[in-house]
């Protein structure tokens, strides 16, 4: 006996609903297994599929079940609204009169627009820049920022050539991966060489800088992709370093993880920092997922210790990478 077409459609929608709902719900158990944390990175995308699917199911049911599905749609929509909130500027306390401008940027190992990147950094007037996917070719260009050549007329017709301090004279690099390159920190302010650690091969560079003679700890981080890749193991390896880093602290980088993921929560917990609020789409996956237009992820984050208040944070313009730079202005 053949089924009614309406029942067939209903069953197909149920299959779609379950295939979306299961990973969505498992994402809230991301502390149990890295696979579930992988699901949490796509929580917004799953919601965008789940809501219309539940709406379709609602109209295949009698009034009682229809109301249940509509209630689920309402709850899912409210949660989507909650996740999709932009950053709201904070009222800065009067005693927070020191300012740091910071840029976080994954360069992309194949970035060929380094002239554009260099000019952007020079014009930004940022105090400190954290970078990921810095290749040897990139490093050669970035080291141009340590000094500038200029000439001074001395006696008669003979000029004297000398080096002038560049926009970012203090630079630290830490090799992460042979293909994608290093993590790095560029600073206008001097380093404390006694407070600097490179976890080579683990994607973490810590450098302490002196801003107006006061120490500020900067961490540049790049994690692997989540499960089935080695992100969870990497986080376990790097967590102990944070007990050696005191406040004030800024941790920034390409986490390859959403801000609500277990990965980011673990870093928050062990560093006593908090990720800056607000959803920021920082990477476009049009090359990796060409069949889904405008597919983006929010995986570049800035975590700060309690001394800082956030005056502003925004995603800036394209600079030859699949990631976009994130600019933050902090008061402390």
From TrEMBL:
An example molecular function term from Gene Ontology annotations: exonuclease activity
Gene Ontology annotations for the cellular component aspect, listed alphabetically: membrane
Pfam families reported for this sequence: Exo_endo_phos
Ranges where the Endonuclease/exonuclease/phosphatase domain occurs: 103-323
Coiled coil start-end: 128-155
Record-linked InterPro entries: Endo/exonu/phosph_ase_sf, Endo/exonuclease/phosphatase, GPI-anchor_lipid_remodeler
Entry keywords, A to Z: Coiled coil, Endonuclease, Exonuclease, Hydrolase, Membrane, Nuclease, Transmembrane, Transmembrane helix
Keyword check for Membrane: yes
Official protein name in the record: Endonuclease/exonuclease/phosphatase
Organism in which the protein naturally occurs: uncultured Sulfurovum sp
């Amino acid at each position: 006996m053949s089924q009614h077409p309406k029942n067939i459609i209903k069953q197909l929608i149920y299959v779609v609903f379950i295939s979306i709902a299961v990973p969505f719900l498992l994402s809230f158990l991301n502390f149990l297994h890295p696979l579930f944390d992988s699901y949490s990175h796509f929580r917004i995308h799953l919601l965008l599929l789940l809501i219309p699917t539940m709406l379709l199911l609602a109209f295949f049911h009698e009034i009682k079940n229809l109301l249940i599905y509509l209630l689920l749609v309402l709850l899912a929509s409210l949660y989507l609204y909650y996740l999709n909130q932009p950053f709201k500027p904070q009222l800065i306390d009067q005693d927070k009169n020191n300012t740091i401008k910071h840029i976080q940027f994954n360069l992309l190992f194949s970035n060929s627009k380094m002239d554009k990147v260099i000019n952007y950094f020079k014009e930004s007037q940022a105090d400190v820049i954290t970078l990921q996917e810095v290749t040897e070719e990139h490093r050669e260009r970035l080291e141009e920022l340590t000094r500038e050549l200029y000439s001074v007329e001395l006696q008669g017709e003979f000029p004297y050539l000398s080096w002038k301090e560049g926009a970012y004279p203090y630079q630290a690099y830490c090799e992460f991966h042979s293909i994608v390159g290093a993590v790095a920190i560029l600073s206008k302010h001097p380093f404390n060489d006694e407070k600097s650690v490179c976890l080579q091969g683990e994607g973490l560079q810590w450098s302490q800088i002196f801003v107006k003679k006061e120490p500020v700890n900067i961490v540049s981080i790049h994690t692997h992709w989540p499960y089935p890749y080695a992100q969870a193991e990497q986080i376990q390896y790097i967590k102990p370093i944070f007990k050696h880093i005191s406040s004030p602290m800024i941790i920034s980088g390409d986490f390859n993880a959403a801000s609500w993921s277990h990965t980011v929560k673990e870093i928050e917990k062990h560093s006593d920092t908090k990720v800056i609020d607000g959803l920021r789409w920082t990477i476009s996956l049009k090359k990796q997922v060409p069949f889904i237009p405008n597919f983006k992820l929010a995986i570049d984050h800035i975590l700060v210790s309690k001394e800082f208040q956030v005056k502003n944070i925004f995603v800036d313009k394209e600079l030859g990478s699949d990631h976009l730079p994130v600019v933050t202005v902090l008061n402390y």
